[in-house]
Amino acid sequence: MLLAVDIGNTKIKAAVFEVNALREKFIFEKNESEKKIKKIFHQYEKIEVSILSSVGEKEKEVISLLQKYTRVEVVNPIFLFPFINKYATPATLGIDRMVLAAGAVLQYPDKNRLVLDAGTCITYDFIDRNNHYLGGAIAPGLQMRYDAMHNFTAKLPLLYPEEPINYIGNSTAGSMHSGAVNGFLHEIEGFIKDYSRDYEDLTVILTGGDAEFLAKRLKNTIFANSNFLLESLNNLYIYKTNND
């Protein structure tokens, strides 16, 4: 058994895998790490290895906790990845984006792939059919757009994502929902259109905390999977083990 751990901007996500089968997923706050990790290993005593990725500095406390129970693989820029990194500034490329790119290569071979990770920010990552990682885009996430409207104006309220009743907002709240949600959707669909025009046979993978909310509203054909990063960690470990 393997434990995949993703330390994000706000929460920690973890999942127990038995080969390629996801047995159980956990989401918890960083200050709950000790209690939650202890519970996971008490419940799944057969976990042999953990693989961890973090969007920020390596979380020494979490790593130390994991090492009490299992061997730990920490994904870093020199980890064995199944693609050639063509990013102009490879040292600045986030580990989470690299893991997602690896997952796309391993799960969708011989295709052009675009991975959308809709979380605090939304990231777009493109890997061509020759397994060259070319880059993508970073933009504010859905809730960040609401937060910005509230924080940088005098009177706009703090709202949370809701389905707009109409694209014509007939109130302040309605206008904000239309602008935030519809603007976000148009941005995503615009990017997909651009990539589809230049790269045939494009596979689009949507993941992240807002994946389910967005998938129901997007017109394009996509693979929506909120667990894609955790699955990618598991697949990346299997790839590394088979190619060391």
TrEMBL record:
Active site, renumbered: 96 (proton acceptor)
Coiled coil: none
E.C. numbers: 2.7.1.33
Quaternary state and interactors: Homodimer.
Annotated ATP binding sites: 6-13, 120
The entry's keywords: ATP-binding, Coenzyme A biosynthesis, Cytoplasm, Kinase, Metal-binding, Nucleotide-binding, Potassium, Transferase
Stated role: Catalyzes the phosphorylation of pantothenate (Pan), the first step in CoA biosynthesis.
Gene Ontology cellular component list: cytoplasm
Record's subcellular location: Cytoplasm
UniProt pathway annotation: Cofactor biosynthesis; coenzyme A biosynthesis; CoA from (R)-pantothenate: step 1/5
Co-factor remark: A monovalent cation. Ammonium or potassium.
Record-given protein name: Type III pantothenate kinase
Protein family: Belongs to the type III pantothenate kinase family.
GO molecular function, one term: ATP binding
Residues binding K(+), per UniProt: 117
Cofactor section: K(+); NH4(+)
Reaction(s) catalysed (UniProt annotation): (R)-pantothenate + ATP = (R)-4'-phosphopantothenate + ADP + H(+)
Annotated gene: coaX
